[in-house]
Amino acid sequence: MRSSVLITGCSSGIGLQTAIYLKTQGYRVFATARKNEDIDTLLSLGFEAFYLDVTNQESITNCLKEILKLTHGTLDVLFNNAGFGQPGAVEDIETDTLKEQFETNVFGLHEVTIQVLPIMKAQGYGKIIQHSSVLGLVSLKLRGAYNASKYAIEGLTDTLRLELIDTNIDVTLLNTGPIISEFRSNAKDKLLENIDIKQSRFKDTYLKNLEQSKSDVPFTLQAIEVAKIVEKIILSKKVAPRYYITKATHLLGFAKRILSTSYLDKLLKKF
How many domains are there within the chain? Predict the structure, then answer.
């Protein structure tokens, strides 16, 4: 029987498409979401679906208990996918807004990880896939909160990988670039919700971004490309520390390695 996989954030986009793809490939997928209507949709698609809000410790515990009943106490793979992007210049982001970004993208990811680790240590194996971003490698302006959350994921994951090097538990990062999903429309909602656009010196830029009906970001890929990398990791006997997804990630990751910070800043200010 193929591996069992827990995926967080399956309401849409990368999480949903990865769940669908892996299910069609014969994996036992435990798809999770935090809204009842999304759970109902997952159930209608034939998934074993569960309520899981990564910002709610109890919901993580309860979800894992239900899954372990079905698997007789094992879980092969965790894909920590849940997250969102909070746009805005650093000077426009209130501390509470930054905390909200970290509650989901960092603290939630961490809580799921440390609750899954005892399961994998007890069974003697497992794979943990943490969803970072190209913005965990480089920073782009007006994305300070999101940049910071992804840099934090990089630090936690690199450290955890070193600490588990003597085990059969693999830990890896996905450095995903632009992918077609609901991410950008959700980010626009967060911009309107948490940023005082009228009082910002970046007002014109914010309004221009809000007016865009679709992304013109080059090298954008379909979400299925992320799903294929997740399967590659599941099947791999030697998991790499990180996987670059999209040409944008490869180009900017290369630039980060070879350019000085000053030259990199000159490049990134154009974005």
Answer: 1
Q: What domain range includes position 118?
A: 4-268
pLDDT digit string, tens, across residues 80-130: 999 999 999 999 999 999 999 999 999 999 999 999 999 999 999 999 999
What CATH number is attached to the domain comprising 186?
3.40.50.720
Strands 242-245 and 169-176: what pairing? parallel
**Is the Cα torsion angle 251, 187, 155, 239 positive or negative in sign?**
negative
Kind and range of the H or E run holding 192: helix 183-194
Catalytic residue, candidates 21, 51, 125, 146: 146
146 catalytic? Reply is yes
> What pLDDT is recorded for position 216?
60
Confidence of residue 215 (pLDDT cuts 50, 70, 90): low
Q: How far is CA 131 from CA 43, 105, 151, 194, 267, in A?
A: 24, 9, 11, 24, 25
